[in-house]
Amino acid sequence: MHVNEVKAVADRIRTEIAKAVVGQDGAVDLLLTALFAGGHVLLEGPPGTAKTLLAQAFARAVGLDYGRIQFTPDLMPGDIIGSNLFNFQTSAFTLTRGPIFCELLLADEINRTPPKTQAALLEAMQERHITIDGQAHALSKRFTVVATQNPIEQQGTYPLPEAQLDRFLFKHVLAYPSLEQERAIIAAHGSRTGQMDPIALGVEVVADAATIDAAVNAVADVRLTDEVIGYVADLVRATRDSADVDTGASPRAAAMLAVGARARAALDGRDYVIPDDVKLLALPALRHRLVLSPAAEIEGRRVDQVLAGLVERVAAPR
Questions:
Q1: For the whole model, what pTM was predicted?
Q2: Whether the Cβ atoms of residue 167 and residue 125 lie closer than 8 Å to each other
Q3: Fewer C-beta neighbours within 10 Å, C or N terminus of the chain?
Q4: In contact, 158 and 72? CB cutoff 8 Å
């Protein structure tokens, strides 16, 4: 598959998602970028901003086997990955697979369960397999987590561990729709009753496993010049040198940002990365990996504000 075909596939997927979700173009673009880069996405926003519907429509359009976990305070790790249960008929243990055995997993309201249960996803997200009673069980090579979380200021939420946050390629913050978009939402869904279903809303499957695999292979062939590599390194290292940042981005973050930039270039039909690809993804790729210094927090500064300043200051290749 050529990068022009990747762009065409992405455009078809966008068209189908738009049948169910009004707006949220930035979130859709990041989901597509993560899919073709083999990464995971964390969506943060207040309830009712179509996080769940977006994930459902995305899974439907790309033809992935979809699973969902509603995270609650009493959820246990075994409820996610499954467990070996004793079968009295056969006098042997049988694996009961958890909902993680799918291709696209919606981890809904992930920060409403304690960190111990959140951490059950760590191995799956990094290695694409899980271990139960010492035995490894492979997941799909296309296994993708789309996690949603409510802002941590809301009641009943737990912060995600730093090690888990570092496994997400992107963190996207969803905003409320504009006035025009909200009117369109009311017009489209105001007369419907019950749960909104992507199939009922007309979302069609426009890709399959072979198409996604071909797109991933095309992304791997996108050129990354030494100048752009240097720019990514300078940007990530700047987060560690900033007085406003207590913990900066890791080398893993730099590598994942480069992979994401390759996928972003392919979505635009290019077989080479430009600095603007890196700039476009800097905030969603790095905002969840930084810990602000106490002084910056006292001054009321925010991670996005600090990152935007670093992107502005770090010189990009011409």
A1: 0.87
A2: yes
A3: C
A4: no
